[in-house]
């Protein structure tokens, strides 16, 4: 039976709840549904599962978009109630007739709901009786050269008389070949004498497998037939052999090289530390994190959709007059249906996928927008395509806008007052630029008079420590390292202790790149995070990826949750997108990553210099996605 049924407005005002349910809900399933599904543009899903200690609930919902109402039903997940969708539709239909914007209590709806529930349960029971679940047909058996079976086609099957002339029969003998109907469950063999033998029962698993005898015959023909096979193999081998290219050795003599080979900035031992930092700042310039990006005026987005229900928007439409009132009385009463929205949503989905948005994410977004618009009245002089475009734009802005503010500089000062370092851990897959962008973040923090220390916890990849050491020397900041083949979690812990002794404000922890399916390395990462409890876990990902972004982030979060020993595991807090300058308008990876993880994009890497680090401009991204 149902556990709860709730009706509330989009503003959060509860209008009616069922009072005859005696069991109180465990946890807060409806609050979690609103926070994790409805507000995150996932309302296009069929249901939502909420797991609480001692109970597991399934939630289903529907909207009345014209009135701004939400109907939510909660029931035990194990019950599999078949009448919930029907009941929600009936409740929506009846309650919308009683709804008044000024009214806040609907006690007279209790009796109506009881009647609707009884009718919905009765319809579900009748449906079970009239349409029972189909039984699984047993495997067909061969008896006397005929097909025997039960189920749907049992009455139409006829036995063959043995002369190979069965009409609609299970076999027709024709020179050793078989023309059979519904023969997917049999292994047919030709005897070569005009008759057909049907294979033994339970051999259906062999269908689609290679015929080994046939392959061996073909191999024999190719290898022994007049030497043709050997000749062909010799020709292929001759073509496959590449020509060997001999590398010319460099001749080293006493003459100076023609080109400059040493590009190192020799800063060691030249003046004091302030002059070194000033020299570096003068060479690199100000970080783009502190520069405000100026956007051009928003241009109108043209839509090529042919599906319109009204005329194009015109300035004259804003004027109130008898013509406007008459047209609004005609076009303004049309309620949007799902079939009306499908062409515009299909065009938007294709557009998002061309911008490198994962297909799964684009489909869920379109379903959510359709759920928010279905049943809504179309305004006068308004095209369906423009209405869908506006709804999608609002949805994208809500997704990309951070749910909580993460101000690193403010958090650093708060940790400094508590006399402890602010720890940031950089994680991600191989080759995305973790070490390079860690150095960019360090350069940005240095410009805000923050003392930074690097921790070389990538003890797996060859050359990782030397790479970080080079960045530390150029930035003139300390680095904590223990070499290779050490436990990264222990190295990070000792680095944090060293930063506390030296008075460093921030510790930037570099970790080894790892694929999301690498169990040993993911276990080591989980240990590092659980042991040191960092203030911020940044996932470094490429802006070039599309569908793979969903797999990377979801599996990273899943592994961190599964391998954690804490009841409240630490997951990814923020995202750093790299190589953003190489993608042109293919900015969909940012949307895919934020949608999957719920973590905001905190930094965007857009070049090779230390200054090439900036914030994500939400309006610019949304404009590019829908352009």
DSSP E strands, number: 19
- Catalogue the unreliable spans: 136-209, 267-277, 296-331
Which structural class fits the helix and strand makeup?
alpha/beta
Work out the radius of gyration: 34 Å
CA-CA gap between termini: 48 Å
**Form type:** elongated
Strand content: 5-15%
Number of helices: 18
Strand order of the largest sheet: 14-13-15-12-16-17-18-19
The residue fraction in helices comes out at 25-40%
Largest sheet, in brief, is: 8 strands, mixed
Mean pLDDT: 75
Domain SRP54-type proteins GTP-binding: 600-613
Region (Disordered): 127-172, 219-317
GO molecular function: GTP binding; GTPase activity; signal recognition particle binding
Family: Belongs to the GTP-binding SRP family.
Structural commentary:
It is a peripheral membrane protein. InterPro entries: AAA+_ATPase, Longin-like_dom_sf, P-loop_NTPase, Sig_recog_particle_rcpt_asu_N, Signal_recog_particl_SRP54_hlx, SRP/SRP_N, SRP54_GTPase_dom, SRP54_N_sf. Pfam families: SRP-alpha_N (PF04086), SRP54 (PF00448), SRP54_N (PF02881). It is found in: Endoplasmic reticulum membrane. The protein is of the alpha/beta class. It has 18 helices and 19 strands. The strands form five sheets. An eight-stranded mixed β-sheet has the order 14-13-15-12-16-17-18-19, sandwiched between helices. Helix 8 packs across helix 10 and helix 14 runs parallel beside helix 15. The protein is elongated and about 100 Å long. About 19% of the residues have low confidence.
């Amino acid at each position: 039976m149902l556990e709860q049924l709730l009706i509330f407005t989009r503003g959060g005002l509860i209008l009616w709840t069922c009072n005859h349910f005696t069991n109180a809900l465990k946890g807060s399933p409806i609050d979690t549904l609103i926070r994790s599904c409805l507000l995150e543009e996932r309302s296009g899903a069929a249901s939502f599962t909420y797991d609480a200690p001692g109970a597991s609930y399934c939630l289903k919902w529907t909207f009345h978009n014209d009135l701004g109402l939400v109907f939510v039903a909660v029931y035990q997940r194990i019950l599999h109630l078949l009448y919930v969708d029907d009941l929600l539709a009936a409740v929506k239909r009846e309650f919308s007739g009683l709804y008044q914007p000024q009214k806040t209590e609907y006690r007279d709806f209790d009796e109506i709901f009881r009647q609707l529930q009884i009718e919905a349960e009765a319809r579900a029971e009748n449906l079970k009786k009239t349409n029972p679940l189909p039984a699984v047909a047993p495997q067909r058996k061969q008896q006397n050269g005929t097909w025997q079976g039960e189920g749907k086609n049992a009455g139409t099957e006829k036995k063959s008389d043995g002369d190979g002339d069965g009409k609609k029969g299970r076999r027709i003998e024709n020179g050793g070949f078989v023309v059979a109907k519904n023969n997917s469950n049999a292994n047919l063999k030709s005897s070569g004498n005009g008759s057909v033998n049907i294979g033994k029962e339970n051999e259906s698993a062999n269908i689609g497998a290679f015929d080994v005898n046939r392959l061996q015959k073909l191999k024999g023909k190719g290898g022994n037939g007049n030497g043709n096979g050997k000749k062909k193999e010799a020709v292929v081998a001759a073509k496959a052999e590449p020509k060997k290219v001999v590398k010319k050795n460099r001749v080293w003599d006493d003459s100076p090289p023609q080109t400059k080979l040493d590009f190192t900035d020799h800063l060691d031992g030249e003046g004091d530390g302030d002059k070194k930092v000033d020299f570096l700042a003068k060479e690199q310039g100000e970080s783009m994190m502190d520069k405000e990006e100026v956007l051009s005026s928003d241009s109108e987005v043209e839509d090529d959709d042919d599906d319109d229900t009204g005329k194009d928007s015109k300035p004259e439409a804003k004027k109130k007059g008898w013509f406007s009132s008459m047209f609004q009385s005609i076009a303004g009463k049309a309620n949007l249906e799902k079939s009306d929205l499908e062409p515009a949503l299909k065009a938007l989905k294709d557009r998002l996928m061309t911008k490198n948005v994962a297909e799964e994410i684009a489909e869920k977004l379109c379903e959510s927008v359709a759920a928010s618009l279905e049943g809504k009245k179309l305004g006068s002089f308004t095209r369906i395509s423009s209405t869908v475009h506006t709804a999608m734009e609002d949805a994208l802005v809500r997704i990309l806008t951070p749910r909580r503010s993460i101000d690193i500089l403010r958090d650093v000062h708060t940790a400094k007052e508590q006399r402890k370092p602010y720890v940031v851990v950089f994680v991600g897959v191989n080759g995305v630029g973790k070490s390079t962008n860690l150095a960019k973040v360090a350069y940005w923090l240095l410009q805000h008079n923050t003392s930074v220390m690097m921790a070389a916890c990538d003890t797996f990849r060859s050359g990782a420590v030397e790479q970080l050491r080079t960045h530390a020397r150029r930035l003139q900041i300390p680095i904590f390292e223990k070499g290779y083949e050490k436990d990264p979690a222990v190295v990070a812990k000792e680095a944090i202790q060293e930063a506390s002794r030296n008075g460093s404000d921030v510790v930037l922890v570099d970790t080894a790149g790892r694929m999301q399916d690498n169990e040993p390395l993911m276990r080591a990462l989980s240990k590092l995070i659980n042991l040191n409890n960092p203030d911020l876990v940044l996932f470094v990902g490429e802006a070039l990826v599309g569908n793979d972004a969903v797999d990377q982030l979801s599996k990273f979060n899943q592994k961190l949750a599964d391998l954690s020993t804490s009841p409240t595991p630490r997951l990814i807090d923020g995202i750093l997108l790299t190589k953003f300058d190489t993608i042109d308008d293919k900015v969909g990876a940012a949307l895919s990553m934020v949608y999957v993880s719920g973590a905001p994009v905190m930094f965007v890497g857009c070049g090779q210099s230390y200054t090439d680090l900036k914030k994500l401009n939400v309006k610019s991204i949304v404009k590019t996605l829908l352009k």
